[in-house]
């Protein structure tokens, strides 16, 4: 009887598993390419990329800095893009002042513990930011409270604000001078496009500032 019961219990589960279609490697790659193709067709995105390049070139040449913030994968993207500016991209050149705001673990845990996690970026923007600097805020949903507070603080003290988000934009839209809406609601696809946009900006900023330097 037990074996009969076990069979009757497991059979529907086995059918579900057999019928479940795991996405193929090819379909995942195709989905990623499709979003990038949509990105390429959006004139506003291309215009915003050029505007971001112009803003960053002016900022760096005036001795300013570009700050980055995000959570989770977007924090990793923030750190990645900051490193491309402060290290190098293609050119062997002087560093550009760019920094991801989450890299000091002691600071983050102190502020999160003593105030709240929502305040971690706003307070460091208040401390580091100066008029003419740029804050690049990354959030796939556009609704991360600590990112929104950072944008609000940045606007108060005269920073230019740039947002990288998904198709809906969320609350970020009201606080960004430039907003990049990736045409997708799929988090991995959005993040892939954020890096693509960031790399494009970094490459062309570097070219504008150090174009006379040999790579």
UniProtKB/TrEMBL annotation:
GO terms, biological process: carbohydrate metabolic process; D-glycero-D-manno-heptose 7-phosphate biosynthetic process
Note: The reaction produces a racemic mixture of D-glycero-alpha-D-manno-heptose 7-phosphate and D-glycero-beta-D-manno-heptose 7-phosphate.
Binding, Zn(2+): 80, 84, 191, 199
Cofactor detail note: Binds 1 zinc ion per subunit.
Pfam families, per database record: SIS_2 (PF13580)
Binding locations of substrate: 71-73, 84, 113-114, 139-141, 144, 191
GO cellular component, one term: cytoplasm
Organism, as annotated: uncultured Aureispira sp
Enzyme class: isomerase
Pathway named in the protein's UniProt entry: Carbohydrate biosynthesis; D-glycero-D-manno-heptose 7-phosphate biosynthesis; D-glycero-alpha-D-manno-heptose 7-phosphate and D-glycero-beta-D-manno-heptose 7-phosphate from sedoheptulose 7-phosphate: step 1/1
Gene: gmhA
Name this protein carries in UniProt: Phosphoheptose isomerase
């Amino acid at each position: 009887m037990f074996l009969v019961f076990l069979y009757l219990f497991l059979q529907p589960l086995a059918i579900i598993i057999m019928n479940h279609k795991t996405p193929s490697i090819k379909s995942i790659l195709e989905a990623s390419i499709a979003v990038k193709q949509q990105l390429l067709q959006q004139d506003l995105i291309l215009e915003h990329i050029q505007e971001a390049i112009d803003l960053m070139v002016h900022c760096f040449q005036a001795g300013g800095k570009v700050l980055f913030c995000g959570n989770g994968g977007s924090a990793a993207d923030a750190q990645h893009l900051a490193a491309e500016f402060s290290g190098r991209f293609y050119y062997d050149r002087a560093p550009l002042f760019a920094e991801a705001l989450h890299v000091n673990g002691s600071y983050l845990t102190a502020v999160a513990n003593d105030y709240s996690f929502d305040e971690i970026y706003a307070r460091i923007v208040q401390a580091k930011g100066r008029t003419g600097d740029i804050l690049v805020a990354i959030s796939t949903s556009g609704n991360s409270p600590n990112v929104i507070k950072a944008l609000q603080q940045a606007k108060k003290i005269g920073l230019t604000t740039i947002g990288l988000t998904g198709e809906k934009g969320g609350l970020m839209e009201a606080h960004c001078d430039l907003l990049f809406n990736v045409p997708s609601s799929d988090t991995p696809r959005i993040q892939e496009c954020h890096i693509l946009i960031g790399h494009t900006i970094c490459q062309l900023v570097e070219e504008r500032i150090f174009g006379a330097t040999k790579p």
